[in-house]
TrEMBL record:
Its EC number is 6.2.1.44. The keyword DNA damage does not apply. This is 3-methylmercaptopropionyl-CoA ligase. Residues 453-527 form the AMP-binding enzyme C-terminal domain. It holds the Pfam family AMP-binding.
Length: 554
């Protein structure tokens, strides 16, 4: 017997329509680089998203066509999130920090029909335009007075494109399973692969973000998206914010500590989301200028994800900002949210130290994400917080295959997706990511967690950032090497750092050596680029039996 409830597809356009009805005056603040902070409302976004949908229709855009963006977080990008997907086309957000060859590959692979870009990417577009074969026109996200002078023949102006269009547009009733947006993974190995989100997956994922055990997003929030709209739909926040009427604060290209601090202060930010490297820079700015964020700001939650949240970063937010950290884990293939770290009633009396230990965990899975860990034979491991194995996930906002089936099947026979992470799960369902399978250090038949070692090293007052990599070793297969960036003006010797670690990790985990560098390499999404480090130092321990390489100073 079927239920007798209304059958309405879950569509991104319905989120916008709800925003227009329920909270049209909630704000979107953005820094576009064109003027001081631009403010508009969901009503403005809705009106202009409809104009955009009409403009795209005039340009001949068909359902399913890919419309690309090379853009920072800003209100015009937000209009595209709703206008493009709402009309049935697919918003393809390209990460501008990728190598130009990768961008070219991605745009051609996706067969993008139009490309919308922010002014800061004008030169990049000029360079790539002749090689983007399917793109019919390039649209600068600006007005006529600021149009870039570049050698691109089919160049259009966004404001001109939409200004003559009607503000009325009837959103099509789509099958909720059709594609809404496309995002390529950074492709640390091989070519980038496209993850194709659907209206249904995006809506279900956004509902989960709004729950209290998700990000607890509500109309009372002013949410700063440091996480870029060109990567995994800014963790789904543009949809979730429109759903509940949260104010959105979009920082544009200025992601340095000072700019973010100012924006948080100006826009009454209560919730901020980003990767650890961004927060390290903000905290260093606060430290260097002896600021008092707990007094200045209204920040009460910070979501840290994309890489493990270092304990010191969590502690600084708690102590200096009086803000609670929500440590979250996920990946592009998971829309991205899988787990969020909240405490349970039994932790109510935990001391700050105990709480910080708990927050090192990536947290508990939300409804919609099933997870399990398996050993190398495929047997499921116990959820006892001790056994650690390959982490598999399943759920309605997790990819079933890559765009154009690139790389072949990605699910096992029972529909599980291998995340590529090594993890343990405890009896309370807390996930602890040990490492990426490719980053875990295999020493004498045992595993050493590079994440835990990095976390411990970053607890030292002189350390700005730390990376630990497994380096081939003649006796132990691999041994950890600690690569450190010191804070400006601070000093620490190798011996001091090793004895600091000795008190915090098992003795056999101790790195065999420490290397000091000026800066660490990061990926396009702000994560440590360990592949590069491993290449740089691959024969470090084998060379030590002879003489260390000249470029290595230890
Ligand atoms: P890309 O695939 O482009 O590098 P993703 O955002 O998809 O970017 O990366 C997902 C991976 O990032 C996860 O599989 C995991 O290894 C790592 N990751 C994400 N969040 C965390 C976290 N909180 N702690 C540890 N690792 C994390």
């Amino acid at each position: 017997m079927l239920g007798l409830m209304q059958d309405q597809p879950l569509l991104i356009s319905s989120v916008l329509e709800h925003a227009l009805q329920a909270h049209p005056q909630s704000q979107i603040a953005s820094r576009t680089g064109e003027e001081s902070t631009h403010h508009c409302s969901y009503a403005d976004i809705g009106r202009r998203a409809k104009q955009l949908a009409n403009a795209l229709t005039t340009l001949g855009v068909q359902p399913g066509d890919r419309i690309a963006t090379l853009a920072w977080n800003g209100y015009r990008h937000m209009e595209m999130y709703f206008g493009v997907s709402g009309m049935g086309a697919v918003l393809h957000t390209i990460n501008p920090r990728l190598f130009p060859e990768q961008i070219e590959f991605i745009a051609n692979h996706a067969e993008d029909q139009y490309l919308f870009f922010d002014l800061s990417f004008a030169t990049l577009v000029e360079q790539l335009a002749p090689r983007m074969k399917s793109v019919k026109a390039f649209i600068a996200l600006t007005d006529r007075s600021r149009m870039p002078v570049i050698g691109v023949p089919n160049l259009l102006c966004y404001e001109e494109l939409i200004q003559e269009q009607s503000e009325q547009f009837i959103w099509p009733i789509l099958d909720e399973r059709v594609a809404s947006s496309l995002c390529y993974t950074s492709g640390t190995t091989g070519n980038p692969k496209g993850v194709l989100y659907s209206h249904r997956s995006s809506i279900l994922h956004s509902l989960a973000l709004c729950t209290q055990d998700g990000f607890g997003l509500s109309s009372a929030d002013s949410a700063l998206l440091v996480v870029p709209m060109f990567h995994v739909n800014a963790w789904g926040m543009p949809y979730a914010a429109a759903m509940c009427g949260a104010k959105l604060v979009l920082p544009g290209a200025q992601l340095d500590g000072q700019s973010l601090y100012q924006l948080m202060d100006d826009e009454g930010v209560t919730l901020a989301l980003g990767v650890p490297t961004v927060w390290m820079a903000l905290q260093q700015f606060v430290e260097a200028h002896a600021l008092n964020p707990a007094m200045d700001l209204q920040l009460n939650r910070v979501v840290i994800g994309g890489a493990a949240a270092p304990r010191t970063v969590v502690e600084t937010f708690e102590r200096r900002f009086d803000a609670r950290v929500l440590h979250a884990w996920g990946m592009t293939e998971m829309s991205p949210l899988g787990t969020v770290c909240h405490l349970l009633p039994k932790h109510r009396d935990a001391t700050l130290e105990e709480r910080l230990d708990l927050q090192a965990s990536q947290g508990r899975s939300l409804f919609g994400v099933s997870m399990k860990i398996i050993d190398t034979t495929g047997a499921e491991l116990p959820r006892d917080g001790k056994a650690s194995g390959h982490l598999l996930v399943k759920g309605p906002w997790i990819a079933s295959q890559y765009y154009r089936a690139e790389g072949g099947p990605i699910l096992d026979d029972a529909g599980w997706f291998d995340t590529g992470d090594i993890a343990s799960i405890d009896p309370d369902n807390y996930l602890h990511i040990t490492d990426r399978a490719k980053d875990v250090i295999k020493s004498g038949g045992e595993w050493i967690s590079s994440i835990d070692l990095e976390n411990a090293a970053m607890g030292h007052a002189a350390v700005a950032e730390a990376a630990v990599i497994g380096i081939p070793h003649p006796k132990w297969q691999e041994r950890p090497l600690l690569v450190v960036v010191l804070k400006p003006g601070k000093i620490a010797s190798k011996e001091e750092l090793l004895s600091f670690l000795e008190a915090r990790v098992a003795k056999w985990w101790l790195p065999d050596n420490v290397v000091f560098v000026e800066a660490l390499p990061h990926t396009a999404t702000g994560k440590l680029q360990k592949i590069k480090l491993r290449e740089q130092f691959q024969d470090y321990y084998t060379a030590l039996s002879g003489s260390p390489k000249k470029h290595i100073q230890s």
